[in-house]
Design goal:
Shape: globular
Order of helices and strands: EHEHEHEEHEEHEHHEHHHH
CATH topology of the largest domain: Spore Coat Polysaccharide Biosynthesis Protein SpsA, Chain A
CATH class of the largest domain: Alpha Beta
Structural class: alpha/beta
CATH architecture of the largest domain: Alpha-Beta Complex
Number of strands: 9
Helix content: 25-40%
Strand content: 15-25%
Length: about 270
Amino acid sequence: MNNNPVSVIIPTYNRAYCLRDSIDSVLAQTYKDFELIIVDDGSTDDTEELIASYDDPRIRYIVMEENGGQSKARNRGLQESTGELIAFHDSDDRWHADKLEKMVPLFEKSEIGFAYHKLRYDLGEGRAAILPDERIPLAQKSGHIFAQLLYDNMIDMPALMLRRRAYETVGPLDESLSCLEDYEYALRLSMLFQAGFCDEILLESTMSADGVSSKSFDYIRVSCELVSRYKSEYIRTNTLNHRLEVILTDSQRLGILDQVGPLLEKIMVL
């Protein structure tokens, strides 16, 4: 490995109000050998001044010429990264101090191409959710997890870490997707590489009102697009009906079931 075996990538856009906590949670890691790449996706707030207040040689600040979305910002971070391992972080999340210390050893197994861990979502009003679903057997969360991922999205981008050769094999995130790009990326990784899993909560995340997942119809539309894209794999692994049921249930919960019918019909005729 080189001098920076872990590259940590934070995309950010007008998040100066919460970015400091995110950065501080990385700098507080008990595992010290990393570089922190902050990709400013065209912010117009005080982000630049905030970054300038730090005096830490591990921080690299990259400013995009214009706002292009979080996938484009993450891809720029991937292009600039130098580490043999790559980790993702969000500008409104907080890592536990031992996250890297717990995750890096998973890659001592040569067959592991990527790894992830549990995280806790703060849903507000005293409610929280754990990802991946704790009802999924532990044995199905590591190794060859492609079929399990088709059945259930278990990996959020801030919980993901991968080897450089895995990134070089699968390429960048799909910038054409307005959401669920992390799910699609995990699917691509799991088709080719085995996964490692840390059965500990190493990250605290808040469901943000301005996050892309809050755009209900867009979320369902992209869900349908991914089912179409991976339809043959869903059929081969006998997970298609379950995934369609999830989309229908989410659509009903979000109150947009009447808009989803044509999308599902298109899937069935492809």
